[in-house]
Amino acid sequence: MNSALPTIVREELLRLSFLSTGFTTPNPPVACVITDTSNSKILALGRTQIAGGNHAEREAYLEFRSKFPKLPPHNVFVTLEPCTHFGKTPPCLDLILKEKPETVYIGWEDPNPLLKGRNGNLELENAGIRVVFHQELAKIASKFIFGFRNRILTRKPAILLKAAVTKEGFYTSGTGLREKISSTDSDFFLSYLRAKVDAILVGSGTVQFDHPGLDFKLPSARPLSDLHGPKKTGANLGAEGFSGLISEILDQGASESCMKVHLEKLSEYQPLRIFLLPEESRVSSSFLEKQEKLNLQYGRSLARFFIRGSGSTSYLDRLHKIAEGNVFSYSQKLDHKNIMNQLENWGVNLALVEGGNSLYRLFSEALENEDRILRIQSNQVSFLEGIKPDWGKDHMLEYRVELGTDCWEVFQKCSQD
């Protein structure tokens, strides 16, 4: 049994992990803290940078070296096993072997098969460096790195189905009108959810009636001081996976420092925007113009289109230009596996499915271990008639939080064993 993580170390690892999530894809959002050998004083911090940049350990040691040209005795806490292979950066293992901490505390083993060429933990121990796999560190890793691990082990991202529903459980009235269901407070934290996932998918009906952008932007309708923190009622404080990530969004999202980082790096936190388009006649020019403007705003193309059938030459040319060629045709029967293969090819670790029912049905039938459903139910908004999310019935409540007038609930698929 490991001793408890010092509070200051745990809080920094959670904060750094949260800031890295949605920023580092396809790499895992790793956090690193360097302390003195009593683990009572933090000496340096690091988190994984955007793909191609430094891993968390290198960031931490850069800060450490800038403070102490001659390094004092120290320990390292890292949420994922240090890498042992050359990628766009040298192995973090070699850096740690060079700097010789007394102890390296590790959260999760790295599932990447590229690590199998070296036994990093044995090399550390042979160099006189103590290696400890820590249970609390593993809990932190489980809130943020689960999508990366799922993609490496199964070649699929972790999927979250999400819907805001009325008191009666309707996500739409079915009239084709844009309808507001979730509260302003919920909208604030849901914006962070867009920043924390790597891709967002919506179906043809959403495209036709809502003309969605799907980009991440923090709402400015309410100042930070007016936001009310969530009231947890029976929530699992040890939540992992999507439940753990959502709990951290609610815990950390309203802090001024967190908002500042996300606003400064707004472009880097943008998810892929994936649209299953209806027939050409049902795709408005205003929707396409919105996607073109987002490309200009963020300086890159993040739109991806799946189109039903074909279309006019000018229409297809415009789609290809917006998505830089990432346009894929499908027949009347959409293949879930084709979408998942593309998500894996794009390095997506976490994907959010925002609806509607064509996508809910498609993905709910294939939910697996790390996949979840997020239902945000309003206690105020009511429709006389409507349509409920069609994501099946065999689900078990995993996490529940009351946030003002809304209730956030996370469900997992019941095991068939």
TrEMBL record:
InterPro entries cross-referenced by the UniProt entry: CMP_dCMP_dom (IPR002125), Cytidine_deaminase-like (IPR016193), DHFR-like_dom_sf (IPR024072), RibDG_C (IPR002734), Riboflavin_Biosynth_HTPR (IPR050765)
Pfam families associated with the record: Inv-AAD (PF18785), RibD_C (PF01872)
EC number: 3.5.4.26
Similarity field: In the N-terminal section; belongs to the cytidine and deoxycytidylate deaminase family. In the C-terminal section; belongs to the HTP reductase family.
Pathway(s) served: Cofactor biosynthesis; riboflavin biosynthesis; 5-amino-6-(D-ribitylamino)uracil from GTP: step 2/4
Protein name: Riboflavin biosynthesis protein RibD
Purpose: Converts 2,5-diamino-6-(ribosylamino)-4(3h)-pyrimidinone 5'-phosphate into 5-amino-6-(ribosylamino)-2,4(1h,3h)-pyrimidinedione 5'-phosphate.
